[in-house]
Design goal:
Strand content: under 5%
Helix content: 55-70%
Distance between the termini: 87 Å
Number of helices: 29
Strand order of the largest sheet: 1-2-4-3
Radius of gyration: 36 Å
Length: 544
């Protein structure tokens, strides 16, 4: 039985070689095995060990080459190549030794014994040796997917190891960046890799590429302080004038250093720096990211008279009356601040009240001009927090979007359906009761002017024919846009969110870092704060 005979000879060879040290007897048994199976890897491995112990390097090298040819396992082949490199080095053939290590690293990458041996061999070596090592890693990156299991992706750490050699040892930062760019294609969600890519982009004078990569990650994880710090550093490299602004998200996440806090506190209050009317409609439109020409918004724009009739101001609901109004002549600091904010936003006239209802934040009533009711506790906030709260509602007022501060998406949907019925009877059937729709439609028809009626006759069919408008999504976008405007005017992200926490019940139970991670509006502000749009508007407004 050939298998029994083979195994017996292998056992004898192992005992003679490893326990008894009888090299001739071991050699005889191994010769018998190889006569039966010339490619037997166990026998070839034992033979290589035997020849090395017998100090016959040429024969040891021959045995190892045969073993390398016969071995199919990647780890085993790499181990044999490392052994061959040691034998060749002992023979004084450094080039062949390095060839063997090159092949071994190309097989197993930067983490195995072969890479360690290669790096040790390069201690004090010249540039050519490290170039050879980098090429071995390149070869591994190219060969691993084809030679490994189906669908295998080269680990991101392999690319990073190669990039480190190219950049730190060989002084080739652009080549290192290209390696990391390739890694990003197969590891798009790897935050550590993206951070490494951004750092490399800075070293290669390609900061814009680093910013782009980090922004994609911040979009996913806006509450991760390390990402925000790296993004801020990259942006500050591109835009030195934004070096303090980029600390905003870090302050929100309680991740600033004492020196950074001092820089933030040393800023000049924003309203004195902002150019007049720099936050006009054109700039605000960039913040809202909505289609201002959509049929839904065109319908709303045609209905200001009707909105006042349908939703008359409810000052009593918050315990205030006309006598509680803060007029321009009152000299009240809050009114003066609101007027300055309104002027910057081109918001026109507005009426301002303070209320004392616990748990209620800023409220809006659809009077003409719009009525803004703020909690009396607003005076306990910083000026930046007050600017944020006033800026949110006044930005909507400036764009004719105050209805979103008053009505829920459901109420808005019913109102628009009722208005559309004036031109398209029976539209909205099934949305709510026919009595409600018809009654609202009659009230709207009585309230609007002939000019508004003509506008509705043109717009309503477009609204009806358009794909169903996602009013919840539209309301969300309006809310986000208004918050962005308020936050930019305040020039203080941390105080803007603190104002939300102290005036709105939905935000009161969590701290700012938690809100950045879980509250959509705050997460959006953390993303938006260092965006190109935000930086461009600040620059035009005089805030940078």
């Amino acid at each position: 039985n050939r298998e029994v005979l083979r195994d017996a000879h292998l056992d004898v060879a192992a005992i003679e070689l490893e326990r008894l040290g009888d090299l001739p007897k071991a050699a005889g048994s191994l010769a018998a095995v190889l006569a039966l199976e010339p490619q037997n890897t166990v026998a070839l491995s034992l033979l290589a060990s035997l020849e090395r112990r017998a100090k016959r390097p040429e024969k040891a090298a021959d045995a190892l080459r045969r073993l390398i040819d016969a071995t199919t396992g990647r780890a085993e082949k790499a181990a044999a190549l490392v052994a061959l490199s040691q034998v060749e080095q002992g023979r004084g053939d450094a080039e062949r030794a390095r060839d063997a290590l090159h092949e071994a690293v190309a097989i197993e990458g930067p983490y195995g014994a072969s890479a360690q041996a290669f790096r040790i061999s390069l201690a004090g070596s010249d540039r050519a040796g490290w170039t050879r090592y980098a090429q071995a890693l390149y070869d591994h990156v190219r060969r691993a997917p084809a030679e490994g299991p189906r669908g295998q992706i080269v680990p991101s750490g392999v690319y990073v190891s190669l990039a480190d050699v190219l950049d730190e040892t060989l002084g080739r930062p652009l080549d290192a960046l290209e390696v990391l760019r390739e890694a990003m294609r197969s590891h798009a969600d790897d935050s550590e890799l993206a951070r490494r890519f951004a750092q490399q982009a800075l070293r290669a004078d390609r900061a814009a590429e680093g910013v782009e990569a980090l922004r994609k990650l911040v979009d996913i994880q806006p509450a991760l302080a390390d990402l925000q710090r790296d993004l801020g550093a990259a942006i500050a490299t591109l835009h030195p004038d934004a070096a303090t602004v980029v600390l905003g998200p870090l302050a929100l996440l309680s991740a600033t250093t004492p020196e950074e806090d001092q820089r933030l506190h040393a800023r000049v209050p924003p309203l004195g720096r902002i150019h007049r009317e720099s936050f006009g409609h054109e700039s605000l439109a960039l913040l809202y990211r909505i289609d201002f020409n959509s049929p839904a918004l065109a319908m709303i724009a045609a209905l200001p008279e009707a909105l006042v009739r349908l939703y008359p101001p409810d000052l009593d609901g918050l315990g205030v009356g006309r006598s509680d109004r803060l007029t321009q002549k009152s000299g009240h600091p809050l009114r003066s601040l609101g007027s300055r904010v309104a002027a910057l936003l081109s918001a026109g006239e507005f009426e301002l009240y303070t209320h004392h209802v616990r748990g209620r934040g800023v409220a809006v009533e659809l009077s003409q001009p719009v009525s803004i009711l703020v909690p009396a506790s607003i005076t306990e906030l910083s000026e930046a927090g007050q600017i944020f709260l006033l800026g949110r509602v006044l930005a909507n007022a400036s764009l004719g979007l105050s209805v979103f501060d008053k009505l829920t998406p459901r109420e808005l949907e019913v109102m628009l359906a009722a208005a559309a019925r004036i031109a398209v009877p029976r539209f909205g059937a099934g949305l709510t009761s026919e009595e409600v729709l018809d009654e609202q439609s009659r009230r709207i028809q009585k309230a609007i002017s002939r000019k508004a009626r003509r506008a509705l006759d043109e717009i309503a069919p477009l609204y009806v024919k358009a794909a169903a408008t996602d009013l919840s999504g539209l309301a969300r976008s309006v809310s986000f846009g208004a918050a962005r405007a308020g936050a930019l005017l305040s020039d203080d992200l941390r105080e803007s969110v603190e104002a939300l926490r102290r005036t709105e019940r939905d935000y009161a139970s969590a701290d700012a870092p938690q809100l950045a991670a879980t509250a959509p509006l705050v997460s959006d502000l953390a993303r938006f704060w260092t965006s190109d749009v935000a930086l461009d508007i600040r620059r035009r407004a005089g805030l940078l």
